[in-house]
Amino acid sequence: MTDHTDITDSAASRVAEFRDVTEQLTEEIGRVIVGQDHVVEHLLTTLFVGGHCLVTGMPGTAKTLLVRTLADALGLEFNRIQFTPDLMPTDITGTDIIEDDAQGQRQWRFVPGPIFTNVLLADEINRTPPKTQAALLEAMQEYSATVRGQRHTIAKPFFVLATQNPLELEGTYPLPEAQLDRFLFNVLLDYLPLDDELTVVERFTSDTPPAAVKACTNAGQILAFQQLVRQVPVSDSVGKYAVKLVRATRPHDPSAPDAVKQYVKFGASVRAALFITLAAKARALMQGRYHVTIEDIDALAAPVLRHRVMVNYMAEADGLSVDDVLATLVSAQAAA
Question: What confidence category does residue 3 fall into, taking pLDDT thresholds of 50, 70 and 90?
Answer without folding.
Answer: very low
